[in-house]
Model the fold of this input.
Amino acid sequence: MTDAAVGAQAVAELRGVHKRYGEVEALRGVDLDIQPGELVALLGPNGAGKTTAVSILLGQRRPDAGSALLFGRDPTLPATRRLAGATPQMAGFPDNLTVAEVVDFVRVHYPDPAATPELLGRFGLAELAGRRAGGLSGGQQRRLAVALAFAGRPRLVVLDEPTTGLDVEARRGLWEVLRAFVADGGAVLLTTHYLEEAQALASHVVVLADGQVVAHGSVEDITTRAGLSPGHLRVPSPPGLEEAILRLTGGR
Amino acid sequence: MRIALAHFKEQTLRHLRSPGYLLPTLAMPGLFYFLFEGPDTEPALVTLLMASYAMWAILGVAFFQFGSGIAEERATPWERFLRTLPLSGIQRLAGRVLSAALFAAVAAAVVIVEAHLINPVSVAADRWLPWLGALLAGGVVLAVGGIAVGYWASPRAATPLATLAWLLLAYLGGLWATPAELPSWAAEVSRYLPTRMWGEVTWAAVQGQATSLGDWLGLVAYAAGFAVLALWGYRRDEGASYR
Done:
């Protein structure tokens, strides 16, 4: 996230992005950089602008001002997104397609997709291949959502609350997958409410509040700036994060 | 093309596994043709009504696959997720249109085959092409109408609205009986409806009569109006989906 790291190599970047919906200013000059081999955690309260920032990065929306680049290109062009993968925001799949059919359908969009059995195995879905996607439990749907983000062998994955509803074992399993992906040079943008997750995985943390970046840096930087002792980080619950954000944003 | 075909398959499987869709499109037109018109002995009448019920079947696909289908899907997380894929709107639309074309062909074929099995229908060999062409032309017009419904109706209102329009346009268009049997007030309204214009050109085609330019112009006007509404609704929806 340092200026020296900014350059043509960035996997994704936002520069001075503004976005307004009618009366509401969702983003007010947001900068964001994601480099290869980096896991960036995007934190912030509901309504902070996380979803808008992600949707602009993935080309679903255009910024009113500022610029968005994905692999150095315009993210609103479908071809630009061939090296990116994302999760559905809430797990919501067509009720009457099977897990394998959903995975196969998504794979087709990419030039060099991962094999379906490999994807299913990697995310603990092998035994669910023939089940209707609409009938999965919350945790199973979440795992399918993450598997879809990896379907196209991406170099950037954008994960929205990937571990909400997962049990401890599944959460740790996903963390291992993400660590291996990043170690391999992949880049991850993660939104999460779990500070423990950011601490365990993130090389950088960006805190968004009221449409602005109020803090960015390593996890230690963020908590130091918030005036919290590192001990707070060990509390694996949303209140720990809320406290850091409340202090950083002055309760806005 | 590969991607459009994947969307064709996705749409087709989803609709094939949805009884709420199959009932009005594939089952009801054939069933009603049997209940009201067959078996009958008057070749001219049963042939006309075969054409009418085939139109009603296609109308169902236009309103339920495009109308309710688009309205129910457009607000879902799945549809938003699709916009993060390397996918263009044209590929998605192509898959949807191909799938609807398949269902429309099957829905019409059900009525046509049934009519040939139970009734003395007769269509001259050289009338088949004009007749099927008229079916297709009107089907496209009403499908654009269905897309307009899909982008303007709320997800909850779309299915009741599509059902009502499907029933009223069929009845008032003279597709259930013949226009001559409509009560006078309905006959008056009927003249201005796209289903009646579609009926007139299709009935003329199946009987080997000349079609009227007025009916064709009316259909073109409806197509243009529906297209404007559909595009306007699509733009409006794109602006609103991500709030």
Confidence is low (pLDDT under 50) at residues 1-8, 231-239 of chain A. Strands of chain A lie at 12-21, 24-34, 39-43, 65-70, 84-86, 156-160, 187-191, 204-209, 212-217.
